[in-house]
Amino acid sequence: MGSPLGPLMANAFMCKIEKQLETENKLPTFYKRYVDDTLSAMPDLTAASEFLTTLNESHPSINFTMELEENGKLPFLRMNVIRNGCRLDTTVYRKPTDTGLLLHYNSHVAARYKRSLLNTMLNRAFKLSSTWKFFHEECERLKEIFSRLRYPDDLVQSTIRQFIESKVSEDSHTQVADKREAPIRIVLPFKDQKSANVVRKQLADLSRKINADISPVYTSRKIKDEIKVKEDKPPLVSQQCVVYSFQCSL
Fold first, then answer.
1. Strands 214-219 and 184-189
2. Angle CA 91–92–97, to nearest 5
3. Which residues pair with 186 in a beta bridge?
4. pLDDT at 169 over 90
5. Side by side, which strands form the sheet with 79-84?
6. Contact criterion met (CB below 8 Å) for 102 and 114
7. Which residues contact 91 (CB under 8 A, 6 or more apart)?
8. Strands 87-92, 79-84: parallel, antiparallel or unpaired by DSSP?
9. What is the SS3 string spanning the chain?
10. What is the pLDDT of residues 57-98, one digit of tens each?
């Protein structure tokens, strides 16, 4: 088992290399990295080969390889990056050697773990799919995989339906929150916590009646407002050139 400090040390090491390359203006315009996997955009194959050489020559311990897109597609971190005109789409990537080996339904495992596996795979598909079309296609593949693992069709279908409904509900709440107007803030002097709670409740009732968000902002008086200095403090220049005399006890 590898040390958990391995990724942190690798990231710190690469950050130092990247800072040096950035100082020398050798980093490409688009450059993203996760631990030791990098994704960059290059104008042509020659520029990509030159950057690969520059990267490997930056330290003796570095030995990167390069993978180019094929038919506008490039796998990166279990995600398939698809070049679609001027934008990039993403979907789930599976290696050709992937056999779909997951937890079998007849395994002696609690049912909640099997449902959690379904939700985990659905959440992974949702996060890696840039469009609902790609997410639907991945859901169809997941149905085939879990069918081979003897998962009941009713369980798979209901889990997918509940997952989609939750995401649609989240989107609707987000849109409502975005359309909501900024709250109206009222500045009030703070007297005590009991009074503040009463005023806050009254403003909440008023907000519901007029369909507007009213929020109180309490302020308190500063000590300097209560204590007034009667005479001005002499300027700093008048406090210089002071001689102190100390007498020893002996």
1. parallel
2. 140
3. 216
4. no
5. 73-76, 79-84, 87-92
6. no
7. 79, 80, 82, 128, 129, 130, 134, 137, 138
8. antiparallel
9. CCCCHHHHHHHHHHHHHHHHHHHCCCCCCCEEEECCEEEECCCCHHHHHHHHHHHHCCCCCCCCCCCCCECCEEEECCEEEEEECCEEEEEECCCCCCCCCCCCCCCCCCHHHHHHHHHHHHHHHHHHCCCHHHHHHHHHHHHHHHHHCCCCHHHHHHHHHHHHHHHHHHHHHHHHHHHCCCCEEEEEECCCHHHHHHHHHHHHHHHHHHCCCEEEEEECCCHHHHCCCCCCCCCHHHHCCCCCCCCCCC
10. 998 888 999 998 888 899 988 899 998 888 889 999 998 888
Q: Is-contact 53 65, C-beta < 8 A?
A: no
* Rounded-to-integer distance, Cα 50 and Cα 46, Å: 6
In contact, 187 and 149? CB cutoff 8 Å:
no
Report the amino acid identity of residue 183: P
Residue 196 in tokens? 């503040």
